[in-house]
Design goal:
The structure is a homodimer of 408-residue chains. Chain A is an alpha/beta fold. Chain A folds into 2 domains: 226 residues, Glucose-6-phosphate isomerase like protein, domain 1 (Rossmann fold, 3-Layer(aba) Sandwich); 157 residues, 3-Layer(aba) Sandwich (Rossmann fold). Chain A is built from 15 helices and 12 strands. In chain A, the strands form 3 sheets. The first copy, chain A, has a 5-stranded mixed β-sheet, with helices on both faces. A 5-stranded parallel β-sheet of chain A has the order 3-2-4-5-6, with helices on both faces. Chain A is globular and about 65 Å long. Chains A and B meet through helix 5, helix 6, helix 7, helix 11 and strand 8 of A and helix 5, helix 6, helix 7, helix 11 and strand 8 of B.
Chain lengths: 408, 408
């Protein structure tokens, strides 16, 4: 994994590097996600070993932090991996989506994972009831905090329960049971996934290459978060489609906050783009629009998929013979490089570039942990509580009142 | 279709309504998309009638404005419609995506639509060559400007050509041949689609309900585009997943510009959200983050899909019995209303709400034309050329140099 930073970070800012590193090192003792790369995965591996071969579908019922992580990893690997079982994600109360997705699944050959940290997520419980009505109790397992109401219910059903540690927040939980259980059942190499995360952890905390890079990038993003209040992640492969969704939750929900001991609303808005498609959609706004955006390019060094543009010369289109015989993987990365260079020529758009080696478990594990660390660092610097989300409660309580009013 | 505006638009601003209406009425004579609802669709309908019943797949090769529109309409209708033929969209040079998508399609039962306004879009020509190498010439039809190199090539191949009018820009072209050809082949009722657009056109240009609403909304968005430089479209149904992508291109590429006769970079950043999922991802940032966002909710009045939460009381989760026996369509709209009310209580987040009647062709036709009009209005007010995209050229020319350098 490489991360090339093309913006200048001033000396006056870099002097805070040590202090920032101390702060995150202190936070590490309290916040759970830092330890996840080092956990014992044998309970997950054993669970999969004993799992019925007749089960072809794993149906994840969860929303937000309970689904975005495993969905990102699963879809990232999809083009290169022969899975043992298919994963399906029920994440919405939209009846059209529920009916359409359900029609694709043979329920008898499915096992359901009910995933909710609090154990009382409204959408998740609604969908759980919906499928409990149609399936056998034995078809359900649970992923939740150990003392949640859902865990108690699961115990009373004699169902399997996997713990989400209390100090691991939903959006930081992909490397906990939340991600590992569905992914191991799908046949993902979860040891490699964690190994990727471990490598980034070590590089950052043990004076490796990423320490300097991440600190610099975080200092720049935080210092300029009012001017550059939008961060674009411009990912050059359709495989990142759901990874950028995961990033959006991680970044937006962690950093969009009232500051601690202040009345100020702060935060940076995350946007995920997929190249080259979004060159034909969003690029114009980046190049000529308001200067409030940083851009992080994300590239795959080796796609390991040898497809070429055939050597065909088309009448009237001979000018495009320059793409003949080029491999698509080379072409897409040349596209990314060209856009990067075009933005650098603007000279007031901060740009950096992340390159992963290939599409596999280790690479996505690295990327996940890289973004988690970056989020934590920026959170410290803009003085917010990175790990809570008090802003979502009001809507929930209004809904509750409406539902009680209706039930009366 | 309803549009309820919950922010106050001051009298001092409303006095510009007439002038704005005059400007857009003048623009109407030059810009092509305004006429599309009234075009003769019989050539498309006839084409479909004569089309081979053996063709099961329509493969659209296009990117940006050449794919986002039909993709949005097709996916919007997917949960409620039995299509005549399936649509597939090849939009990227990502070799993993090409290989994965290709593996799903029987090429012999497929017909290809090569869609490019200029007729020389690099990605599209690369993919065209790729499939031309594997298929027969008879399997291709073309959608392009009449004098483009692609049209000339198509003529020399004796292939069918559908015109994209010169004065209809890519991102405003969904109601032209760009959308209508693939959609009619899929079995979409394109007359209803245009009829929806016509109703919005008439309501706006002939003193109907939408005239006042759209003018007000545009005046507010434009006047405050520096403070509220992000527009969120928060759509409550998975069916809108690709519609919001279409909106993002329309809004971002039209309004992210250097001002006419000025050196200023302006524009508003579009973000598409899907509810309720993004309540668990992006909502925190809206409620507590920087106050730089307007929020437009988008709801479906009648889902016509009767699914209910079963009347099951779960031990330890009896508190959630309040959702028992509620239909999912009612639940999702109560969720949307609750979040809307929560945002209104913040009193510094401008909110409006768009409600469509149901999921059908007319509704999406209305929505498309509504957003096209809104975009044009804001473009006039912030003094940009809504219909060009000069900012994307630099990246293209850098890529060309790289490709020529490589070929040499």
């Amino acid at each position: 994994m490489e991360n090339n930073i093309h913006f200048e970070v001033k000396e006056s800012l870099l002097k805070y590097k040590n202090e920032l590193f101390k702060s995150i090192s202190a936070e590490r003792a309290k916040i759970g996600y830092y330890d996840l790369p080092f956990q014992d995965i044998s309970p997950f591996v054993e669970f999969e070993k004993g799992f019925s071969k007749d089960i072809e579908n794993i149906v994840v019922i969860g929303i937000g932090g309970s689904s975005l992580g495993p969905k990102a990893v699963y879809n990232f690997l999809k083009p290169v991996k022969k899975f043992k079982r298919k994963l399906y994600f029920f994440e919405t109360t939209d009846p059209l989506n529920i009916a359409q997705l359900e029609s694709k699944i043979e329920l008898e050959k499915s096992h359901f994972l009910i995933v909710s940290k609090s154990g009382s997520t409204l959408e998740t419980i609604a969908l759980f009831k919906y499928f409990l009505d149609k399936c056998k109790k034995e078809q359900f397992s649970f992923i939740t905090e150990l003392d949640s109401p859902l865990a108690k219910l699961a115990s009373s059903m004699n169902a399997k329960i996997f713990e989400i540690p209390k100090n691991v927040g939903g959006r930081f939980s992909v490397l906990s049971s939340v991600g590992l259980v569905p992914l191991v059942l799908a046949g993902v190499d979860i040891a490699s996934l964690l190994n990727g995360a471990k490598k980034v952890y070590n590089s950052f905390f043990e004076d490796g290459y990423l320490k300097d890079t991440l600190l610099k990038k975080a200092l720049f993003f935080a210092k300029n978060h009012q001017e550059y209040n939008i961060n674009l992640l411009f990912a050059y492969s359709e495989s990142f489609k759901y990874f950028v969704q995961w990033y959006i939750q991680l970044w937006g929900e962690s950093l969009g906050k009232k500051q601690k001991d202040s009345i100020l609303n702060v935060g940076v808005t995350p946007i995920g783009l997929i190249g080259p498609q979004d060159q034909h959609s969003f690029l114009q706004l980046i190049v000529e629009g308001t200067r409030n955006k940083t851009v992080s390019f994300l590239k795959i060094k080796n796609f390991k998929q040898e497809l070429k543009v055939p050597k065909i010369s088309l009448d009237f289109l001979q000018k495009l013979d320059i793409i003949n015989d080029i491999s698509f993987d080379e072409l897409i990365n040349m596209q990314s490089d060209s856009i990067k260079e075009a933005l650098l020529l603007q000279d007031d758009i901060p740009v950096d570039e992340i390159i992963i080696d290939e599409v596999n478990e280790e690479a996505i594990g690295k990327l996940i942990f890289y973004y988690e660390l970056l989020t934590s660092l920026v959170g410290i610097l803009i003085d917010v509580n990175t790990y809570n989300q008090p802003g979502v409660e009001l809507g929930k309580s209004i809904l509750k009142d409406k539902l009680i009013g209706k039930a009366d």
